[in-house]
Amino acid sequence: MSEEVTYADLKFQDSSETENIQEFDQVGVKAPPAPSHVWRQRALAALILLCLLLLIGLGVLGSIFYLSLKIEMEKLEELQNFKDKLQNNVSLQLTYNMDSLKKIRNLSSTLQEMATKLCYELYQKEPEHKCKPCPEKWMWHEDRCYGELKKYETWKQSDLICSIHNASLVKIKNKSVLEFIKSKKFYNYWLGLSPREDYKSNKDLDETIISSDWFTGNTIDLNGEMYCGYIHYMYVYYDTCTNKKNVMCEKLPNPVKIESILMNEKPDGRM
After folding, report:
1. How far apart are CA 162 and CA 41, in angstroms?
2. Which residues on neighbouring strands pair with residue 190, listed in sequence order?
3. In the 8-state DSSP scheme, what is residue 27?
4. Domain that holds residue 157
5. Are 197 and 176 within 8 A, CB to CB?
6. How far apart (Å, rounded) are the C-alpha atoms in residues 150 and 245?
7. Number of structural domains found in the chain
8. Regions of the chain with pLDDT less than 70
9. C-alpha dihedral, 261 to 264 to 266 to 268, nearest 10°
């Protein structure tokens, strides 16, 4: 009895074997299963998170750059304002300095004029006063110094001697100089008249102040056949330039030294 196999048992065994065979067939030959839906969602979430982090990072960097740029622009604006203010101050200072320099120059010029006038008054009383702007023993008249050099030379040599003293032969170009020269009664002195090829008769000294013959050139081509003018008391005469006559020169005076006005010492020899 115990060894009897019923139909039901066989049926159950057949059914179990069939399921096992089917299951073996399905498991042994099918491809690996596809990724699950959960893994895809996690990967997408991670990608989205990464993008968000990148966007946040870019936003932070942009904010830092903007703030840095704003700060630098403010500093640059402050520097520009400081530069403009400094330039304005420098410009104002230069303007002030120029005005001050102009005032100082005007004051210096005024003091120089006053000193010259005062020195001239002292010179009238004491011809060799310390403040005199002319060399010793030279005469001072207005804006010129006149010196008799105690020499007897040709016109060309006389002109050269005057040049050595940074001077020139005397020219009479206005009435004030004319009256000064006439008052001294100079005798036989060369004048700074241009040498000429033709002889010219004597004329009154007064006529020379309107003359266009005052010498302005050089004496390179001067020869023995030319005539030069000289003063003889109140008249102007012409003689051959190679003859010898007295030498008298004129030159600009030196500036009057203010500190020397109150000094009565005679100046050292100057020429």
Report:
1. 117
2. 230
3. H
4. 139-253
5. no
6. 10
7. 2
8. 1-36, 216-221, 223-224, 262-271
9. -50
Residue reference for tokens 């000094």: 263
Q: Are residues 245 and 148 in the same domain?
A: yes
- Tokens for 236? 């102007």
Place of tokens 């036989």: 188
Please say whether the beta carbons of 239 and 245 come within 8 A: yes
The pLDDT tens digits for 50-101 are 888 888 888 888 889 888 888 988 888 888 898 888 888 998 888 888 888 8
Structure tokens at 58: 């870019």
Return the pLDDT at 9. Answer: 52
Quote the tokens at residue 63: 């904010």
**Per residue in 87-106, pLDDT tens?**
889 988 888 888 888 888 89
Among the candidates 132, 165, 192, a domain finishes at 132
- For residue 130 the two structure tokens come to 């310390």
pTM listed for this prediction: 0.60
Which of helix, strand or coil describes residue 237?
strand
